[in-house]
Design a protein that fits this description.
about 120 residues, mainly alpha, two-stranded antiparallel ribbon, 2 strands, globular
Length: about 120
């Protein structure tokens, strides 16, 4: 099955894989499914501690993300936005493969992160 995209930019509908080739020209043409690896290696993403999203302490996760965001020279957004984006990115990427217990820990880490940056907590 081929997915198609239509846009004023491209003037006509073209297969989505051609769009990917236009957007990510540096990505390996041998395996276009490695876009996440490519994005991680070449983006302005934060440098995170190994295994940070597998920890079971929401406060420790939030502190680590805060430290990474505060110390990063590559981020484009404010530290809070960068740290929260990275946490949300991981939760969304893990999807159904994330256990309910770990998802709960990571959701709690969001509130810990909000607290560390003086932002209002979200009540469940």
């Amino acid at each position: 099955m081929t997915l198609w995209i239509s846009s004023a930019i491209f003037h006509d509908a073209i297969p989505i894989n051609q769009v990917t080739d236009l957007i990510l020209p540096a990505m390996s043409q041998d395996n276009p499914h490695h876009w996440l690896q490519h994005a991680t290696e070449t983006s302005n993403a934060l440098d995170l501690e190994s295994g940070v999203f597998s920890w079971d302490d929401p406060r420790k996760i939030a502190l680590s993300l805060k430290q990474s965001a505060d110390n990063s020279q590559r981020r484009k957004a404010e530290p809070f936005a960068s740290a929260m984006s990275m946490l949300n990115f991981y939760i969304n990427r893990a999807g159904k493969h994330l256990s309910a217990q770990q998802r709960e820990v990571l959701e709690k880490a969001k509130n810990e992160l909000r607290e560390l940056y003086g932002k209002p907590r979200i009540q469940p």
